[in-house]
Design brief:
Blueprint lengths: L2 E2 L2 H14 L6 H13 L3 E5 L3 E5 L7 E12 L7 E6 L2 E7 L4 E12 L6 E5 L7 E7 L2 E3 L1
Antiparallel strand pairs: 1-10, 2-9, 3-8, 4-7, 4-9, 4-10, 5-6, 5-8
Helix pairs in contact: 1-2
Length: 143
């Protein structure tokens, strides 16, 4: 099982070592990398819109995996709240969200998409004036 790092993560590692003097084996370094991952493509936020985090097809034999989703709705009564994980166009996880608040959904073992197929997490529009947020946690690729 080979894990594939994104170019941005590899660049971050280079910058971290060069500018901060962080040791790749230290817990401080891992924390720094994790916070960067969360800020680069794993979050979608918006009011009265569907919020989607999308991972494009990774190439031949490469699958996307995620270990969880954290989501929230705020700003009033939620109507039509729902979260889906899609493997290409196939819905592989579907959950209705009936009230405002935060939810954490864990996948153990990780939810694994098909090789060379996009994986997306979609938080439905929660209604007029409703702020929706979706955060994918533990995203990585495997070949």
């Amino acid at each position: 099982m080979a894990l594939k790092k994104s170019a941005s993560i590899n660049r971050l590692e280079q910058l971290a070592r060069a500018t901060a003097g962080l040791d790749p084996s230290s817990g401080q370094y891992e924390s720094f990398k994790s916070s960067f991952r969360a800020a680069t493509g794993n979050v979608a936020t918006g009011t009265h819109v569907a919020n989607t985090v999308n991972y494009p097809a990774g190439g031949s034999g490469v699958s996307h995996l995620i270990t969880g989703v954290v989501l929230s709705y705020s700003g009033g009564s939620v109507t039509g709240g729902n979260v889906q994980v899609k493997d290409g166009t196939n819905v592989v996880f579907n959950l209705d969200i009936v009230a405002a608040g935060a939810e954490k959904i864990s996948f153990n073992p990780p939810l694994k998409g098909s090789p060379n197929t996009a994986l997306s997490v979609v938080l439905a529009d929660g209604g007029s004036g409703i702020l929706g947020k979706v955060n994918v946690i533990g995203h990585y690729t495997e070949s």
